[in-house]
Amino acid sequence: MTDTADNSVMKAENSAPENYINRVSFTARLKQYARSPLSLILMILVMLSALFAVGMLVFIIIYILVNGIPHLSAEQFSWEYTTENVSMLPAIINTLLMTAMTLLLAVPVGIFAAVYLVEYAKRGSKLVKVIRVATETLSGIPSIVFGLFGFLMFNIQLKWQYSILAGVITLSMMILPLIIRTTEEALLAVPDSYREGSFGLGAGKMRTVFRVILPTAVPGIMSGVILAIGRIVGESAALIFTSGTGHNIPKALIGSGSSASTLTVHMYILSNEGLHTNEAFASAVVLLGLTFIINLISDMVERHIAKKKG
Asked: Which tens digits make up the pLDDT trace of 174-191?
């Protein structure tokens, strides 16, 4: 009987919600806020702001889906673009190529720069302060300025013409500050005890960085990469000046036949002409789905790495 009673108590404790004692009902919370009118007003404003943000997101998504899905057709996924089918398939492929090449170029540079700032450079040194100021300044520059710089530097000065490589390097410069800052914050969040424990076991600096610190900071680094992907996929102004508005898949990185328009640029061209507004909405639906899939894959990779590490 005693064992049965003990088992029943243990089951009841296990089935009880975690932190049950610390939970406060909504009515009790309102009574607490009622004692301080300012707190109640702030709570209401915060809740309304959250609802407004979510509502606007839902409205935009529904608006795009309602206006775009009915105009999706098989002709828009033809291999070659023509003025009759206004195919978006080349733009989709160009978007994936642009994203992969930009990440391949910017992510290693950004991560290594952040590792230098956090692990190798002296904390509080003037060089670190200068680099951080330069990074924050670059992150606040509008994309059109990057586009003008890329156009003058790569298209005109280096004579690359409108090319996918010019767009990739321009996008890399745009997302590099984001990668550096998010990676730096992720590295700073790693406790110093991890470093001290690794050094105490006889590991060197490089082994500690690559086997202890970076794996621990992967979630923060992946968050920066996901944000960078969103900026790459949604960019249009800088790409119009650098990679151009070519509707076909580029045959080279630079020179003739290397101009490539991403899905965002393709959608902008269709809506700007005013002749294919319905197709522009259809492209927006595909862009929305493509962004969701890329973010989902990135999140799955992050979870897999975190699970493997755990």
From this structure: 999 999 999 988 998 888
Nearest to 117 by CA among 22, 189, 184: 184
Q: How far apart are CA 159 and CA 153, in angstroms?
A: 9
Tokens of 231: 């900026």
Side-chain half-sphere exposure of 10, counting CA atoms within 13 A: 6
Does 189 lie in the same domain as 117?
Answer: yes
Helix residue ranges per DSSP H, 254-276:
263-273
What is the rounded distance in angstroms from the CA atom of residue 136 to the CA atom of residue 149? 18
**Residue 53 confidence (pLDDT) above 90:** yes
Q: Is residue 1 part of a domain?
A: no
Please enumerate in sequence order all residues whose Cβ is within 8 A of that of 306, keeping only pairs 6 or more positions apart, or say none: 218, 219
Q: Letter for the amino acid at 181?
A: R
Domain of residue 51, residue span: 21-71
CA angle, 246 as apex, 276 and 282 as ends, to 5°?
A: 30
Reported as a pLDDT band with limits 50, 70 and 90, residue 295 is confident
Prediction pTM value: 0.79
- Rounded to an integer, what distance in angstroms lies between the CA atom of residue 164 and that of residue 100? 12
Domain count, the chain: 2
Residue-wise pLDDT for 110-137, tens only, equals 999 999 888 888 777 788 888 888 888 8
Q: Where are the beta strands (DSSP E) in the chain?
A: none
